[in-house]
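Much of what follows relies on a compact textual record of a protein's fold. A record is reproduced here so that you can trace the correspondence yourselves:

. . .
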Amino acid sequence: MNAIATHSTIHPLWLRLTHWLNATAVLLLVASGWRIYNATQFFDFAIPRGITLGGWLGGALQWHFAAMWLLFANGILYLLINLFSGRLRRQFFPIMPRQVLRDLGAALRGKLAHADPRHYNSVQRLAYVFVMLDSLVLVLSGLVLWKSVQFPLLRELVGGYEAARRVHFFAMAGLCGFIVVHVVMVALVPRTLLAMLRGR
C-alpha cells in the first residue's frame, strides 16, 4: 500500500496535482508549438490558426518556454515521487506483450474490466510508459532546438538541427495521439475523471 495514500483514496493529492499541472503544461506547449511550426513549417500543411497560441512567433515562443519549465519541474517531481514511493514499479511494470494483446482485444470489444481503478491494465501501462518516454524525447529534442550550440553531442545524436525539428514534431504528434485516446477512454469510463478530480 502506498504510504502517501489512505485506504479510501484512489488517486492521492500529489498525483492529482501533478496530473493537472502536466495537462495544463502540455496543452500550452502543443498550442504554442503549433504556432511555432506554422511560422517555420517544413511540411505542406499548416495548423489552423484558431487552435494555436501566441498570436505571432515571439509570443508563441514565450508561451512555449514558460510551459516548458512548468512541465520540466512538475515532471521531475512526478517521477521522483513515483520512484521513491515504489509506485513506478508497482503500477507500470511488468508489461507483458501477451497481456497487452489480450487487454487490447477486450478494449476493442468494449469488454475491458475497470473494477479497480487503483490498478492499471496492460494497455494503460504501455500507454503511460510510452508517454513518459515520448516526453523525454520531446525534452531532449527541444533542448537541441532551444540551445543547439550548447548541446552539440545531443544535436549530433538526433541527426542535427533539422532532424531534431522533425523528431520534436513527431514526438508531439505521438503525445497528441495519447491525449486523444486518453480522453476517449475517460469518456467511456467517466468515474475515472471523478477520481482524478476528488481522489476517490
Summary: Confidence is low (pLDDT under 50) at residues 1-7.
